[in-house]
Amino acid sequence: MSLSQLQLQQQWQQHCRSSSSRVQQQQSTRRWQANCVHRATKRQVSCKAVANVQSPAAATAPTPGARDMSASLTLPNIRSSLIRQEDSIIFTLIERAQFAQNPLVYQPGGVEVPAYSKDGKQYSLMEYILRETEQLHGKVRRYTSPDEHAFYPEELPAMVLPPLEYPSILAPAADAININSQIMSIYLNSLLPAIAALGDDGNYGSAATLDVLALQALSKRIHYGKFVAEAKFRAKPEEYTALIKNQDAAALMDLLTDRKVELAVVERVRLKAATFGQDVNPAAQQQQQQDHQQQHEQVYKIEPDVLAKMYDDVVMPLTKDVQVAYLLRRLDHE
Ligand SMILES: O=C(O)C(=O)C[C@]1(C(=O)O)C=C[C@@H](O)C=C1
Fold first, then answer.
1. Residues near 170 by Cβ (< 8 Å), separated by ≥ 6?
2. Which reaction does it catalyse (predicted)?
């Protein structure tokens, strides 16, 4: 194992230990609550957006006392958030990979659930869990946050928490961009078959619950393209404005693409997948060393190349599509 692999592994183990500490969790929840600001619509700043991105120039009248943190909407800050989000995506997919594909989970009525579409079709188990999750999370304003996007936005419930006014980060056009149906389709048709073994192991609830976590993490990462695009626009307003005025999607794609950064992302994902996805068994390793046995070839929970390729072929291209879609409409309300 290389030094950086070892460091990553140590960091990950430390992260797991600290996140399982109830006291620390409570402390960080209290800190989070103390620092948080809430918003009622996507035009305002959420707790998570403040924590991850900080905030932008105020386009709406903020609640008195709300900080204007537009200086923090920089590419390095946003990239740090993308790096943190990688951990959740990789870890959740590794967890999902321990179960078989379980095709019944995705078939409408494949597993009995007490929920039907308006035309009387029973939902699949996965859709049922995702819809129910969105109903609960929607009540506590999850989808008012600019970095969260519902898979069933037309059916969100009334909120139980009152709205607050905070300065907006993104241009108004951001609200209309939601590519979750595309993310769902790619997840079910390409990603899931690439990470989970064929077959049915009966772990329907676990598989579907992990699907929901993976879909939410992917959706958040991909729609973060809105923040990336806003930061890039602010860094080069003249260049972007000219292309936006010409509605030149191809040139916008060229301008925002940085292949060197993409290759670094792919390599980092490969390294994280290799680190998080190996069975860590120090006792067995020590015994092997004592017995001067040859190291067995490492078996990963998911082949690191699969996740690296997923980032290169799916996650980053979709993030860039979101960036272009946002930029094309960036000046609509000016
Ligand atoms: O970091 C950036 O500059 C981004 O635009 C984000 C991102 C990515 O999705 O990770 C997308 C496009 C770039 O080519 C490089 C990376």
1. 42, 43, 56, 146, 226, 227, 230, 326
2. chorismate = prephenate
C-alpha dihedral sign at 15, 16, 22, 25:
positive
Q: Considering only CA atoms, which residue is closest to atom 10 of ligand 1? A: 316
Model confidence pLDDT, tens digit, residues 140-187: 999 998 999 999 999 999 999 987 666 688 999 999 999 999 999 999
For the chain, the domains span 74-278+302-328
Six token digits for residue 183: 């993310």
CA of 265 to the centre of ligand 1 (A): 8
What ipTM, to 2 d.p.? Answer: 0.99
Contact 321 CB / ligand 1 (< 6 Å): no
Cβ of 50 less than 6 Å from ligand 1 = no
Q: What is the CATH number of domain 74-278+302-328?
A: 1.10.590.10
Q: What's the chain's length in residues?
A: 334
